[in-house]
Design brief:
Elements lengths: L14 H7 L11 E6 L3 E7 L19 H20 L8 E12 L8 E12 L2 E10 L2 E13 L14
Antiparallel strand pairs: 1-2, 2-4, 3-6, 4-5, 5-6
């Protein structure tokens, strides 16, 4: 594990910095920029949705709509960045963030090409290696999807990743 993360109160991340926190790559990297982070508390990030996304070829050719599961995935990737920053580590190739559960997911509006999906994620609690977040994604201030996400972080060497943030 690389532990050279700066623990500033607030920060932004461009795509190169995001790739240091997420193992995902095209076409499944769904966070383009982090706008704001309060380490240990909350994060705001964006996904620029373009007509060039591969999933629009089949979902749906006559009326392109971003799949709901990918909106949830974008929020989960945003949550993973917050978790790694909170733990003050950068994941290595053995780090994996797994979904444990999704509660109260509600889809409120479609997301279409040209939209900018803004993800707001906050940590609700961390207990026994399970992170619970409140996540809301919106377009132009209107909620597109919301829910509570639960994830855990695992590695081949479990001792390499702390189960809870330092000091908690």
């Amino acid at each position: 594990m690389n532990t050279d993360v700066q623990s500033s109160a607030k920060t932004t991340l461009d795509i190169n910095a995001i790739k240091e926190y997420l193992p995902h790559r095209y076409p499944l990297l769904l966070v383009d920029r982090v706008l704001d982070v309060e380490v240990g508390k909350r994060i705001t990030a964006i996904k620029n949705v373009t007509v060039n996304e591969e999933f629009f070829n089949g979902h749906f050719p006559h009326k392109p709509v971003m799949p709901g599961v990918l909106m949830i995935e974008a929020m989960a990737q945003t949550a993973a960045i917050l978790s790694f920053m909170t733990m003050n580590v950068k994941p290595d190739e053995n780090s994996v963030v797994y979904f444990v559960g999704i509660d109260n997911a509600r889809f409120k509006r479609p997301v279409e090409p040209g939209d900018q999906l803004k993800m707001d994620v906050e940590i609700l609690r961390v207990s026994r290696g399970i992170w619970k977040y409140k996540a809301v994604a919106s377009v132009d201030g209107k909620v597109a999807v919301e829910g509570e996400l639960m994830c855990t972080i695992r590695a081949n060497d479990a001792a390499a990743i702390p189960a809870t943030p330092a000091g908690q």
